[in-house]
Amino acid sequence: MDTDRTRSTAAPGCPQGGGTGPSGPPSAEPTTLARAAGESGHPRLPLGDDCWFLSGPTASGKSALAIPLARRLGAEIVSVDSMAVYRRLDVGTAKPTAAQRSAVTHHVIDVVPPAEPYSVARWLDDASRAVADCRSRGRCILFVGGTPLYLRALRDGLAPLPPADPEVRGRLAAEAERGGPEPLHARLTDIDPTSAARVHPRDTRRIIRALEVAEATGRPLSAAFAPAPDPFFESRLMIVDLPRAALYERIDRRVERMFADGLIEETRAALALPGGIGPTARQAAGYAEAIDLVEGRIDAAEAIRRTQRRTRQLAKRQLTWLRSFPRAAWVAA
């Protein structure tokens, strides 16, 4: 890693060289970023000088880079991946390997079964507990992952949102059942183009939630994520850099390996569990396609093509968001 580009090799208070750390927790005086959260009423993780952030698009090599970086910082890894939280979904989520997890302690992985919904608010709770655990043992924290919604919440916190409205949600779900999610996505584009750009046109659950919030509050869901003026997050953010053609080639090869390494068998096994694979877990590229394959709607070649296309679309959305941080350090993979 180019240390000139990343500006620093260890956070103040973090042990060098991957040792066990000092006897007490490192200095973690909250930054102005964390203090502003309390003043604004938006709950945020208690970020401090013992926190670093490593992101990048899917298949860019974040996990491999994270291990030596965490050792150098004397850090443990907190996953910022919305699909790594699901137990028994390993092949399709490209979780860190057993060897990587053995080399450095990982947090917020294998948290819930595939049938269970999992929200960004719950991730913030789980990540907060992981941060406290790391600090109790004198370890620094390296956040690793590329889920933009989680990264945004990590940076900005979450504005209070209205609870689910069963009547509104039921009405919108019935519309999606009759005409598909695309007309709802078009409606969302009219009232909240920022949220619509972040949501796949067939992601019914997230489209409905964005419309539900807009109807309940009169304000777009995207207004809940105000940019944070404090530069702390960006100054500690490292982004894995890879030419677009090379990234897409990696994505295509990774998807082929997923199907060769047992994605279909993993999907069948998860479908047999109580509740099967819930709507949140099905958002992971590969599982919806594998389900269509298992249920006879498409063949293997088409499942691979669709998964490759959807994963490339995900990488493009991730890069678009990450490029909004001009002061972040872009690190060659």
Q: What's the CATH topology name of the domain at 3-159 and 229-241? A: Rossmann fold
> Uncertain segments of ≥5 residues (pLDDT<50)?
1-13, 16-42
| Radius of gyration computed on alpha carbons | 20 Å
Helix coverage percent: 40-55%
- Pairing-aware structural class of the strands and helices? alpha/beta
N-to-C SSE series? HHEHEHEHEHHHHHHEHHHHE
Q: Which architecture of the domain at 3-159 and 229-241 would the CATH scheme give at its second level?
A: 3-Layer(aba) Sandwich
Find the count of extended strands (DSSP E, 2+ residues).
6
Structural overview:
The protein is an alpha/beta fold. Among the domains are: 3-159 and 229-241, Rossmann fold, CATH 3.40.50; 166-223, Histone, subunit A, CATH 1.10.20.140. The chain is 49% helix and 8% strand. The chain has 15 helices and six strands. The protein has helices at 3-6, 32-40, 62-73, 98-103, 120-136, 148-156, 166-179, 182-191, 193-198, 204-217, 232-235, 244-260, 263-271, 287-294, 300-322; strands at residues 51-55, 75-79, 106-107, 140-144, 237-241, 329-332. The radius of gyration is 20 Å and the shape is globular. The protein starts with a helix and ends with a strand. Mean pLDDT is 85; it is low at 1-13 and 16-42.
Compact summary:
By secondary structure, the protein is an alpha/beta fold. The chain is built from 15 helices and six strands. It has helices at residues 3-6, 32-40, 62-73, 98-103, 120-136, 148-156, 166-179, 182-191, 193-198, 204-217, 232-235, 244-260, 263-271, 287-294, 300-322, and strands spanning 51-55, 75-79, 106-107, 140-144, 237-241, 329-332.
